[in-house]
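Please fill in the sequence for the structure shown.

STRUCTURE ENCODING:
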């Protein structure tokens, strides 16, 4: 009889424990923890492609399930078409950074337009028909030229000046101090220090709820319909 009582108490205890465990699994801690809404940032890379560092960057983006935007110099794209094809094939946005990385404001509108069109022709040849958005070197461009372009112009809201410091930690610190939801970050994949910085930035921001998308994706996620003849620095306030 005593044995059956012991067994009964054991069964009751197991049922009670299972019920508590199920309750703990189905109810959020503290009566309902909220999952934060995702935040979005566009990492952009200028002046490539460059053998070695561009491939390294693509591998790191692939490992993290991230998308980015590459603004390619026409001369570089013509020299390394296989890298351009790789960028496009992996779902990244490809943009136009002029043929020879010249300051467009130093040229007449006609000559500046020719710089853009020459680079665009190379991208069209390598990747096929498409809209290759423009990033003017140094961010300098006249409104008269912008209005003649058939695609949007992309500037940036976060500039860690990676080309100047060539220091991975300095680039990471500069981005982390200023990045917000909707930021467009300027980097250069021709520097291995910047590639390593990009990896660290993604690894730091991802736990905070950030997702890494192309510029076009960023604008559309934020409810902005991209327009030709318009320059964009970020998405949102």
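FILLED IN BY: designer on duty
SEQUENCE:
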């Amino acid at each position: 009889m005593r044995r059956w009582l012991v067994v009964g108490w054991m069964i009751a205890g197991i049922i009670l424990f299972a019920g508590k465990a199920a309750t703990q699994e189905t109810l959020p801690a503290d009566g309902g923890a909220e999952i934060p809404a995702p935040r979005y940032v566009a990492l952009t890379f200028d002046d490539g492609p460059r053998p070695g560092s561009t491939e390294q960057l693509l591998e790191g983006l692939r490992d993290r399930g991230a998308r980015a935007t590459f603004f390619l110099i026409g001369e570089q794209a013509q020299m390394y078409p296989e890298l351009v094809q790789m960028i496009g094939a992996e779902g990244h946005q490809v943009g136009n950074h002029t043929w020879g990385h010249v300051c467009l404001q130093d040229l007449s509108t006609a000559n500046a337009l020719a710089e853009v069109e020459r680079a665009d022709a190379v991208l069209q040849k390598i990747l096929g028909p498409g809209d290759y958005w423009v990033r003017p070197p140094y961010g300098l461009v006249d409104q008269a030229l912008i209005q003649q372009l058939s695609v949007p112009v992309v500037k940036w809201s976060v500039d860690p000046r990676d080309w100047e410091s060539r220091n991975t930690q300095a680039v990471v610190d500069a981005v982390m101090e200023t990045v917000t939801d909707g930021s467009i970050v300027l980097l250069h994949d021709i520097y291995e220090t910047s590639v390593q910085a990009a990896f660290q930035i993604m690894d730091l921001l991802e736990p905070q709820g950030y997702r890494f998308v192309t510029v076009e994706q960023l604008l559309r996620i934020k409810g902005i319909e991209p327009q030709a003849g318009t320059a964009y620095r970020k998405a949102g306030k």
